[in-house]
């Protein structure tokens, strides 16, 4: 059980690490268009993302999938950029839910590959990696839920207390993330 808590803690700390803020940005733009009343939709989106990154993380840790890390590090900010742009150009309506869940799942696949080298280095030569892998993934999900909670509380304060329109708030956050993720992509462009 002690191993569970070690890898669980590593998972949520990895997500909330401000030095690797790309995951924070993705979760932020994923849920900034929603309010507290949309909690079920947010939970489904975050779960789709978790399923995607857990799948590729598992496949990579078991050496079933191997990718060029340089391309994955470039594609991660592209997924953030695309999600932020989708928020900006989407009308006030939420849009096609199944398309959004599919996009989130696919982007989760990319992000999971980004975690794989980190987790592989943590696991080293452990004989049984299933339990640490599961613990780490649960920690990642917990960290994501913390980000979602902070974004939703902040959004609720801005919309309810300061009377900012939900669409304007989403546009503001998404526009900021477009700029950040564009610069990240340029910095990581594989030459």
Automatic annotation (TrEMBL):
Signal sequence, start to end: none
Alphabetized UniProt keyword annotations: Membrane, Transmembrane, Transmembrane helix
Transmembrane segments: 20-36, 43-64, 70-89, 98-118, 138-162, 169-186
UniProt name for this protein: HupE/UreJ family protein
The organism of origin for this protein: Sphingobacterium olei
């Amino acid at each position: 059980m002690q191993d569970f808590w070690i890898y669980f803690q590593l998972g949520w700390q990895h997500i909330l690490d401000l030095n690797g803020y790309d995951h924070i940005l993705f979760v932020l733009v994923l849920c900034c268009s929603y309010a507290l009343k949309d909690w079920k939709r947010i939970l489904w989106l975050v779960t789709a993302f978790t399923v995607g990154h857990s799948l590729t993380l598992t496949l990579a840790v078991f050496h079933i999938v191997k990718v060029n890390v340089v391309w994955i590090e470039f594609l991660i900010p592209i997924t953030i950029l695309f999600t932020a742009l989708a928020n900006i150009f989407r009308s006030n309506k939420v849009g096609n839910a199944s398309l959004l869940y599919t996009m989130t799942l696919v982007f989760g696949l990319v992000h999971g590959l980004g975690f794989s080298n980190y987790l592989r280095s943590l696991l080293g030569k452990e004989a049984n990696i299933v339990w640490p892998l599961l613990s780490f993934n649960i920690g990642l999900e917990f960290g994501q839920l913390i980000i979602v909670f902070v974004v939703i509380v902040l959004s609720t304060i801005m919309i309810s207390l300061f009377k900012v329109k939900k669409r304007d708030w989403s546009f503001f956050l998404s526009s900021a993330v477009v700029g950040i993720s564009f610069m990240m992509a340029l910095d990581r462009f594989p030459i």
